[in-house]
From TrEMBL:
GO biological process: lysyl-tRNA aminoacylation
Subunit structure, interactors included: Homodimer.
Cofactors: Mg(2+)
Superkingdom, natural source: Bacteria
CDD domains: LysRS_N
Family, per entry: Belongs to the class-II aminoacyl-tRNA synthetase family.
Residues of the Aminoacyl-transfer RNA synthetases class-II family profile domain: 200-504
Gene name as annotated: lysS
Annotated residues for binding of Mg(2+) 1: D421, E428
Gene Ontology MF terms in the entry: ATP binding; lysine-tRNA ligase activity; magnesium ion binding; tRNA binding
A GO cellular component entry from the record: cytosol
Keywords: Aminoacyl-tRNA synthetase, ATP-binding, Cytoplasm, Ligase, Magnesium, Metal-binding, Nucleotide-binding, Protein biosynthesis
Record's protein name: Lysine--tRNA ligase
Amino acid sequence: MTTAPDATTPAPETEEDVHEQKAVRLAKRERLIEQRADAGGGAFPVGVPVTHAIPALRAEYGELEAGAQTGVVVGIAGRVVFSRNTGKLCFATLQAGDGSRIQAMISLAEVGEESLARWKEFVDLGDHVFVHGEVISSRRGELSIMADDWAIASKAILPLPNAYAELSEEGRVRSRYLDLIVREQARTTVRARAAVNASLRATFGSHDYLEVETPMLQVQHGGASARPFITHSNAFDTELYLRIAPELYLKRAVVGGIERVFEINRNFRNEGADSTHSPEFAMLEAYQAYGDYDQMAELTQELVQQAAIAVSGSTTVTWADGTEYDLGGEWDRISMYESLSAAAGRTFTPQDSVDELIPFAEQHGVDVPPHAIHGKLIEELWEHFVKGDLVRPTFVMDFPVDTSPLVREHRSIPGVVEKWDLYVRGFELATGYSELVDPVIQRERFVEQAKLAAKGDVEAMRVDEEFLRALEHGMPPSGGMGMGIDRLLMAITGLGIRETILFPLVK
């Protein structure tokens, strides 16, 4: 049922209105506190005697016929999102945290003159109130509580936003608590995220994976090519880095004998923010001993499809704008070099030199990255020529070796590594490797990365001696994968990344 705010307590339209309403509500708070000894509770009681939840009452009594009485007496609490005061009968719609609602009816006959007058004086939109009374259906068929008693559960000092003036995206992000109160999509997204995480854990559990936690504060950043956040530990008097990836610690776990391991946790990258990137984000990574990148692709497809089913009941999901997107079936696999060659109209190979690639990139308006190397140029060209045409979920296979320092060389194609990126909705959702486990080659790759860092590449990795020492104790051949949880929600819901994160970082 859609209702408008009470005309006697309109939602604020200007900052001045907000200040005026705040002053009025603060005065009510003072009077409630002064009257607490006589009336009980005050403006912020420790608790109220709730016996039933609004969603449960709706589930049990939602089909009552108009005018029906149950004889069932309950105590409920909720936020007032609509209020209409008449002479001898007041109506209020109370909303639970999940958005479900029930009507409260405060009548002179049931609560008495003093209690009714207190309701009219003290209750505003946004307040949490407790109502005790019988479950009935109103003459209009609205599930209701006919109150015999009520109390303020928590006095709202600031008014709710106008019910008909939708919050802007910026307003939703900055005041997510208001977004959750007034917008069903916000509440649905939170529930979808919880369902996705539960589904991911269930799928991993069915494959005998063990969930672990690895450090977020690290003495050496690694596991990805990204610029880190830097902080300082007073206790150790040393510089520390916020984790950019859990990879190097999860691989230590595999060395130690945890042969199927995964983690869902926070990563931090000191980079730009846009519709698909956030400086702080949730990441899933998993590693399987005696696996490879083909097996991790199969696992990733299963993880995503099961998550979609958990949210939508089907692998065909409906995005927020009404568009349907099919995540079902077997997903396409294409070669990076072959797909680039077909789209660009010339053959590209892992042996192409930087001097050959730069003029071609410039000719087609492709940005040449600083510290240009073969792999970065190939990936930039691929994004320019191929990425925008991908519609279905697609694994892009076999990347240049010089941009993938933690990945095993391809078993049959020189110059590339066994790595894939999964693209869904035109953005990268996940990545997977056949992991590099040879400590000698891994050291060589780290040294090459360190040379790039010395030249000013802030995303290049450093030599991680502790990780190399772990590899020297023997890591079994393994497959690994990583996937952004926020981006998985984007793929399932069609929302931007700031909508899928409950409280995203804002300026």
